[in-house]
Amino acid carrier protein
Amino acid sequence: MTEIINTLNGYIWSPALIYLCLGVGLYFSIRTRFMQVRGFKEMIRLMFESKGSDAGVSSFQALTMSLSGRVGTGNIAGVATAITFGGPGAVFWMWMVAFLGASTAYVESTLGQIYKEKDDQGLYRGGPAYYIEKAMGQKWYAWIFAVSTIIATGLLLPGVQANSIAAGLNNAWGIDTAVSAAGIAILLGFIIFGGVKRIAQFAEIVVPFMALAYILVAMVIVFLNIDQLPSMIALIFKSAFGFEAGFGAVLGMAVQWGVKRGVYSNEAGQGTGPHPAAAAEVSHPAKQGYVQAFSVYIDTLFVCSATAFMLLSTGMYNVKAPDGTMIVNGLPGVETGPAYTQAAVETVMPGFGSSFVALALFFFAFTTIVAYYYMAETNIAYINRKVHRPWLSFVLKLGIIATVTYGCVNGAGAAWDLGDVGVGLMAWLNIVAILIVQKPALVALKDYETQKAAGLEPVFDPEKLGIRNADHWKRPAGNVADARRPHAQPANHVPVGLEVSPAAARD
């Protein structure tokens, strides 16, 4: 089985996908005139603009939903893996795929907004399957994506997050992985079988503050090793381009692992971001595109960089050549993963580091598992529009619990290999789709900027822009002032699986 998975990964993560991710990011950066730079101030402003409604969440809630999926084990264990197999230069390529990928995230998230719809319960649903069907007119391709996403986010990816939680708890407090597996499975079961509201409220508050605390701890560690900062930055850049002799053997691997782990972490182009993006209540799809582009920055340029700086400034990392020899052996015999970051924090804060990282990893990774469930469940909702098989959701619940349990007790290598299959499969399918159906997202950006330049509050009129099948956005003829007012309703519901309280939604 391991050999089959490795062979599959070899095909999926061939150099073609590596350079496709970079190339598509560069292409969309040019097509959007580098909106990720021009629109930085607008991204910040829009995060706090919209309100929730009966059908959807606010822009900030959609951002936190997205971050709960993006900020996970990839930010801690994934960075360590990238450095181990790609050297310090892999960090540069993680930055590069994030910078370019922000424009990709804009395109896919705006498409998710344009083609969203309401389900039987009156809640917003959207994502690649929806815009593939409505914009491409290819239902068979939409079904392939939906099924692939259910498999990836419901069965392949959760095991990676669970494995890192179990490893972190074992390193910090010696908790047996089987005990962690039982605890995580019970808690997850409680959530997805009916208690999501309370945990989602908790995650909405905890994840942003936990990410901030994590970045602050990293800043303290880097400050205490400030003399290492210039040489560390130089090492990252020189290793990325083969100018550091010691890492010449892993030059090609730096690009491969930097892009691979960068996409795994920030998910730009993978097709996961459009699911929570579609849940936002906004007056114009481009607004949520801006916000979701910023989430890529938070994930990689902030949180992943925090991990990388901690590892490199303290020397708590290993680098392994393709032939298996050790180029750097800062942690002899330690398996790559959260233990690297725990060791880095321990060098400065003895007795605190392992526990802090284990706690951060638990919140990051567990909320990611919940976000994965929401994405898989959204694609089941897409399938159920036609076939109406309610038992599919029940099977998904059992499947994700089984996957989490297996991921905890199995080796980290196997969990990551399965996760890579899921990420790569979704990325191939989604990137091809957004290249084909990109035009509505680009038209929406131009329309938004034109209205802003005219001093108007942008509203979206798909018929005026020549965009078809955006049925949710079609407005009856009426007062222009009414049309320019966001279509908000009493705020008390959000998408299934990520609810918040009525009070939180109104706030």
About this structure: Residues 477-483, 485-507 have pLDDT under 50 and may be disordered. DSSP finds 23 helices and four strands in the chain. Residues 186 and 495 are 23 Å apart (CA to CA).
